[in-house]
Amino acid sequence: MRLLDYTLRFAVVAYLIGALALYLMQDRLLLPAVPDAADLRTVTHAGDDIDVWNAHGVYAGYVVTPTEQEPRGTFVLYHGNEESAETKLPLADVFVRAGYRVVIVEYPGHSKRRGERTMKAALVASRDALSAALSQWHGPVYLVGESLGAGMASQVVKGNEPVIAGVVLITPWDSLANVAAEKYPIFPVPWMLHDIFDSVAAVSRYDGPLVIVGAQQDALIPVAHARRFAGEHDHARLMLLPTAGHDDWIGAMTPQDWRRILQWLKAG
Fold first, then answer.
1. Reading across the β-sheet that carries 74-78, which strands appear in turn?
2. How far apart are CA 96 and CA 47, in angstroms?
3. pLDDT reading at 222 higher than 80
4. What is the mean pLDDT of residues 210-225?
5. Do residues 214 and 241 lie in contact, with contact meaning Cβ atoms separated by under 8 Å?
6. Taking the CB of residue 41, how many other CB atoms lie within 10 A of it?
7. What kind and span of H or E run contains 229?
8. Burial, 178: exposed, middle or buried (Cβ in 10 Å; 0-12, 13-18, 19+)?
9. What DSSP line would sit under 1-46, residue for residue?
10. Angle at CA 89, nearest 5°, toward 136 and 61?
């Protein structure tokens, strides 16, 4: 009986320590450090003009502009975790080739941007990016986010519905709480998160074009989350990539897929 008592006490203590660690370290888990990458201004890229971008006087990422025409509008792009603004030129190029300016947003504590590497700081920066883009340029403004960036883009929509021309969410969660609960089923995750990042609720009042791209082989954020998200929104367009995973989805996209997305956004 004494051995059983000690075992139970040890299990309880271990559980509480694990729960405390998850609570205190969630920003580090969600926003791990990223490796250094080359400044995008050093990249030779035909058809693109690449420069650093400041939002309200603070370095906030890059702006990529088509060199052969006046931009038709602006896409604000939010990257995922374990990434930086320097890694998103291939995705930005899709919209630059369609004639749009693309702002690649950097989060505080990532790459060259100073600040705390926290979800709260990332969300504030994401909202500021939309505000800065609207004040800096005329024309329609679209949001595009991948993975964690899809969560950021969704939260930016909330309260800004009238000024956003369209939204593309790639490999998104429906809520961070749902994904975390799958990863850590023994813990009461919804009560432990600083913010549950409910994307479905965040875009519930948005009636503009909404495109959701899901990767059917996604092991990090299973495609069921994208399906559920689309199912909860009356006019969301869902594109599923049968052979794609979380990190290789862009290689599964065809020119026809991108044209369809631009058509759904009414940005073709």
1. 48-55, 58-66, 101-105, 74-78, 141-146, 166-170, 210-215, 237-241
2. 8
3. yes
4. 96
5. yes
6. 10
7. helix 223-231
8. buried
9. -HHHHHHHHHHHHHHHHHHHHHHHHHHHHHS--------GGG---T
10. 40
For residue 117, count other CB atoms closer than 10 A to its CB: 18
Q: C-alpha angle 30/101/142, rounded to 5°? A: 60
Amino acid, res. 99:
G
Q: Compute the C-alpha angle 138/141/142, nearest 5°.
A: 165
Quickly count helices (H) and strands (E) in the chain.
10, 8
Residue 201 contacts residue 155 (beta carbons within 8 Å): no
pLDDT of 47 over the 80 cut: no
Q: How far is CA 188 from CA 8, 12, 177, 180, 185, in A?
A: 19, 14, 10, 10, 8
The pTM is what?
0.91
Indicate the residue type of 119: M
User: Sign of torsion, CA 155 159 61 165?
Assistant: positive
| Euclidean distance between CA atoms 190 and 100, whole angstroms | 39
Q: Is the pLDDT of residue 89 over 90?
A: yes
What is the chain's length?
A: 268
Helix (H, G, I), strand (E, B) or coil at 101: strand
Closest CA to 171 of 101, 107, 250: 250
Record the tokens describing residue 264, joined without a space. 């759904």
SS3 of residue 206 by DSSP: coil
Average pLDDT over residues 21-36: 70
Q: How far apart are CA 220 and CA 81, in angstroms?
A: 12
Measured distance CA(179)–CA(26) in Å, rounded: 13
